[in-house]
Each structure stands twice: as structure tokens, then as C-alpha cells.
């Protein structure tokens, strides 16, 4: 029984990462859609990175995008 727990946990983490990546890619594919709130907060991105659901590279790209959206939103307001 214990032999299957580690591979099952790894599989669950990978599935979670794929779900997050799919959601992010879908959002990027809709450049014309404006949201009233940012897709991710920096706190959420940090949590996802720390939990292993995002790679460092994914985290850095999403963090830059979140900062850019915040700056752009402030200019328009």
C-alpha cells in the first residue's frame, strides 16, 4: 500500500500543474478580454511556486505579466 502513495502524490501534483498551466494558457489566448481583477496576485503566484505547482520559469513569466497588468491598469485609471 505504501509503495503506491509516493507515485500517486507525484501524479496529483503533475495533474494540478497541468490544470494551472492550461488555465493560464487559455487566458493568454484571449488578449482582448479585459478583467477587472488580475488573473493572479503575487501572493498566489508565490504560493503556487513554493508548492511546486509552478516552475521558477513559469513563476517569473507570470509575475512579470501580473506586474505589467497592474502598471497598465494604474495608467488607465
Characterization of this structure:
The protein is mainly alpha-helical and 77 residues long. It has one domain. Helix content is 74%, strand content 0%. The protein has three helices and no strands. It has helices at residues 2-28, 42-50, 56-76. Helix 2 runs antiparallel to helix 3 (56-76). The chain is elongated, with a radius of gyration of 15 Å. The N and C termini lie far apart (57 Å). The model has no long low-confidence stretch (mean pLDDT 81).
Give a short summary of the structure:
By secondary structure, this protein is mostly helical. It has one domain (2-76). The protein has helices spanning 2-28, 42-50, 56-76.
Q: What form results from the Cα inertia axes? A: elongated
In N-to-C order, the SSE pattern is HHH
Average pLDDT confidence is 81
Summing up helix and strand content along with how strands pair, one would put the structural category as mainly alpha
Number-wise, the strands total 0
Q: Which properties best describe this structure?
A:
about 80 residues, mainly alpha, elongated
Secondary structure elements and their pairing?
Elements: H1 2-28, H2 42-50, H3 56-76
Helix pairs in contact: 2-3
Amino acid at each position: 500500500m505504501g509503495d503506491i502513495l509516493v507515485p500517486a502524490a507525484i501524479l496529483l501534483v503533475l495533474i494540478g500543474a497541468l490544470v494551472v498551466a492550461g488555465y493560464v494558457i487559455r487566458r493568454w489566448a484571449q488578449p482582448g478580454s479585459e478583467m477587472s481583477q488580475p488573473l493572479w496576485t503575487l501572493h498566489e503566484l508565490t504560493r503556487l511556486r513554493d508548492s511546486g505547482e509552478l516552475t521558477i520559469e513559469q513563476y517569473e513569466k507570470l509575475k512579470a505579466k501580473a506586474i505589467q497588468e497592474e502598471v497598465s491598469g494604474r495608467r488607465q485609471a
